[in-house]
Amino acid sequence: MFNKKVAIIYNLNAGHGRAGKKLEQVKSEFMKKGLDFDLFLGEYPGYGQKIVSELDFDKYDGLISAGGDGSLFEVINGYYANKRKVEIPLGILPIGTGNAFAHDMDLDSSKWKEAIDIIAKANTKRVDVGYFHTKGKDYYFLNILGLGFVADVSETAGKLKIFGNVSYTLGVIYRTIKLDSDFLTMEIDGKTIQRQSLFVEVSNTRYTGADFLMAPNAKVDDGLFDVTIAKIMTRRKLLQSLAKVFTGEHIYIEEIETYQVKKIKIESDSPRILTPDGELMGSTPVEIECLPQAIKVFWR
pTM of the entire structure? Predict the structure, then answer.
């Protein structure tokens, strides 16, 4: 039950600008549900984090991230930067390109009205939060943190945004041609392993991006990350493996290792860029920890 109102952090540029065109419909739907709200419109990177970090949580019954995975990353980092005295639930309005966390709630950009209905019912669930430390700074994530091939693809795709949704496919093709690996030393819950690896994904949710079922056995509230490590394989085998990510069957490939962990520290033979929730930020070495059921989320 809402006694106050919700704060909506709305990324106008989410979904290649489609979110901005949908704004009036979204406002109308919140009003139909009888929800009072303050709307904060973001048009530049970092806006969501700045607004949430300065927000007076006492005025609100909920904090809504309206956008995609990048928007949610900003909101969760603003949440932890906020010197809050009260805890308010987080709501997800999936109107971005990638909605991985929403996907674990059986939501996507076509179900944004259903997402508002979930918020209006005010049922909550505690979920895990990912924390990582890199280059002297602390960050938080709700979906996934990757490095190696997966981060390289994101970096290349980001330079090819002019091509729209095809940019990620072009990134995969380019990085497959330029394929390289890293010698990694990983400390997993106190046990050290070393691997020559193509990529590592540390997952809190099952999905990454729009449709990649990277960690089919992950649960958002079990206090554990599901870690996927891809060892050395041929380019052809890598492409075959990536095709299987859509169904989660990649975890059965011989060159793929999986672990469930609370903490993981990763060092590489040379610094490698990180991609938390699709963003590009920080580099190895990195320390990552699962914070069990650290935040409330409006849930079915």
Answer: 0.93
